[in-house]
Amino acid sequence: MRRCTSFRNSEGITYNGFPYEPILFDIEIKQESGTQGGVSLTINDYTKAIQARMQAYGGGVGFLATIIVVNAGALDQPPEIVEEFEVIGASSANYIVTFELGVENALAKTFPRRRQTRDFCQWRYKEGSTCGYTGGLPTCDLTLRGPNGCAAHSNTLRFGAYPGINSNGARYG
Q1: Whole-angstrom Cα distance, residue 87 to residue 51?
Q2: Is 106 exposed, middle or buried (0-12, 13-18, 19+ CB in 10 A)?
Q3: Is 57 helix (H, G, I), strand (E, B) or coil?
Q4: pLDDT in tens, 95-127
Q5: What SS3 state is found at 164?
Q6: What is the pLDDT of residues 120-143, one digit of tens each?
């Protein structure tokens, strides 16, 4: 078990355009043989702002929590560590808030990450590396032949779906 008490910055910082205020917190990493690891995050909540959010959202259980470690002396650099956890438990007493963080539930994830569909384009509209549309039309209905789809945009070669998928309902296997 490792413990890290963090209060490195006594002043706020701006990282990736978002302001962050200093706060006293402890992180305890749990790694025991034969069990699934986890993280315990304890925060001093003197204003009770976090406790108010916990009450509004059921403690945040089931929410995702991202822990990002950055070098305050090199805020223009990418983060040193980025880890994502699921909140599996939460508690508060007096001015102390504790979140138990565990690994994400693999059964709740979409698999495979990209679905193959016949009619629905999976690309983000006007994204350069996928959709690639650079014309003046402001929207797309993400279809191939729809009234505002790839054909209307003269962009059928970059359609992000699979029109050749069997559509007559036949099943194989």
Answers
A1: 15
A2: exposed
A3: coil
A4: 999 999 987 666 766 677 667 888 889 898 998
A5: coil
A6: 898 989 988 899 999 999 999 999
